[in-house]
Amino acid sequence: MVSQSLLEPMTTPIWMGFMVLEVLGGGLGPLHRGRWNPRFYFLRFPSWRGAVSMGQNSAQTASQAPGAHTIMIDVTVENFEAEVVAASMNVPVLVDFWAPWCGPCKSLGPILEKLETEYAGRFKLVKIDSDQEQQIAGMFGIRSIPTCVLLMNGQPVDGFTGALPEGQVRAFLDKHVPTAEAVAAEAQEEEALDALAEGDTDTALEKLQHAVVTDPSNDDARFDYVKLLLQLGREDDAKVAFAPVIAKAATARKLGALKSWMDALDFVATGAYGESAGAEFDAKIAANKRDFDTRFARARWLMAQQRWTEAMDELLEILMRDKAWSEEAARKTYVAILEIIEPPKVKVAEGQIPPEDPVVATYRRRLSSVVLS
After folding, report:
1. I want to staple 105 with a disulfide (CB 3.0 to 4.6 A). Which of 87, 98, 300, 324 is the partner?
2. Residue 310: what pLDDT?
3. Is residue 61 within 8 Å of residue 176, measured between CB atoms?
């Protein structure tokens, strides 16, 4: 049984101190460097009249978890790190602290199981027997049960105490759990990037279009979709797809990069700069190395042709002579190009760092060298 010192009247709100943990020789301890840093989080969980003080268990017993067909994962000290902390890096994890003798727990358990099934992988449900796992319950400061704690990215973010009705549990989850549309869009985006890696641009374009339609708020999918349209020379389609987020371009770096590319295309089209423009630009620059307007025009002309490294080389020529020219237009455009040409991160094993694209890495170093000189 849990020590009487852990008890708290169920009518009093609970202040709970949390610490990210790891399993150390059968016990719990703070994570060490190279993993997640130990930090304390204090969450005020409102009490609920359905909660039961953990000292009220002396005359009650039960042999199984709540629900006739439980799908929750039983968590112990041995699997806490893998099933809770590590798992929460990929999907929200809802931890249900319960006990076999707890009546309200038996009411809440089936609701949680039903919602886990309904939400179809959008969150993971685990249960911890507070009687059997007193060490974990103590670290989480559990005073009454049922108590549920939601972890994301290795850290607790919210929780509640008591046997809430289904509607309130659903509302709690919806504050944090991604929508079904968002999950579907992310899956389509990933499939699109896989197709693109295999050279199947038609499938990639179709998947990205579906992702944007499924979840219009997914700016990453929209970025990939508009970028691919521009790469394929479908500028009008790209502008239509970009229109809903154009107002965000000033504050969102990836969207701002797309706008910079489309502005370059418009600049070239308006100025009627054809293939012969290169020689004209070169002649003007040869006559005046500090003709930054011409250098910038040449960089945009190169951008329109997707000659990215040449465009960055020209922008570096401006930066080496005047970093602040035209409100840092050269630096901002250079950064936009880096955003455009950076390929999707390669999938690697957990804990490993994806390799950086050598071209992007080289030009990032060159920019830093010039800007910091």
Report:
1. 98
2. 98
3. no
Torsion of CA 337, 343, 348, 352, to 10 degrees: -10
pTM recorded for the entire structure? 0.68
pLDDT 10s digits, 133-191: 999 999 888 899 999 999 999 999 999 999 999 999 999 999 999 998 988 898 899 99
Q: List C-alpha distances in Å: 28 to 64, 81, 99, 182.
A: 26, 9, 20, 35
For the chain, strand residue ranges (E) read 14-19, 21-24, 27-30, 40-45, 52-53, 73-74, 93-98, 124-129, 144-145, 147-152, 155-161
CB atoms near residue 162 (< 10 Å): 22
DSSP, residue by residue, 115-159: HHHHHTTSSEEEEEETTTTHHHHHHTT--EESEEEEEETTEEEEE
> 40: exposed, middle or buried (C-beta count within 10 Å: 0-12, 13-18, 19+)?
exposed
Residue range 62-85: average pLDDT? 67
Determine which helix (DSSP H) or strand (DSSP E) holds 270, and give its type and residue range. helix 253-271
Neighbours of 23 (CB within 10 A): 16
In the chain, helix, strand, coil percent, each to 5? 50, 15, 35
What's residue 125's pLDDT? 96
Q: What is the DSSP letter of 27?
A: E
Q: Which domains does the chain have, with CATH numbers?
A: 4-177 (3.40.30.10), 179-248 (1.25.40), 253-373 (no CATH)
Q: How far is CA 63 from CA 100, 102, 108, in A?
A: 7, 12, 17
CA 364/CA 318 separation, integer angstroms: 16
3-state secondary structure 312-364: HHHHHHHHHHCCCHHHHHHHHHHHHHHHHHCCCCCCCCCCCCCCCCHHHHHHH
Over residues 274-326, the pLDDT tens digits come to: 888 999 999 999 999 999 999 999 999 999 999 999 999 999 999 999 999 99
Could you tell me the two tokens for 138?
């103590």
Let me know: does 187 contact 193? Beta carbons within 8 Å: no
Beta strand ranges found along 215-301 (DSSP E): none
* Pairing of the two strands 124-129 and 73-74: parallel
* 216 pLDDT tier (thresholds 50, 70, 90): very high
Catalytic residues: 102, 105
Question: Residue 349: is its pLDDT beyond 90?
Answer: no
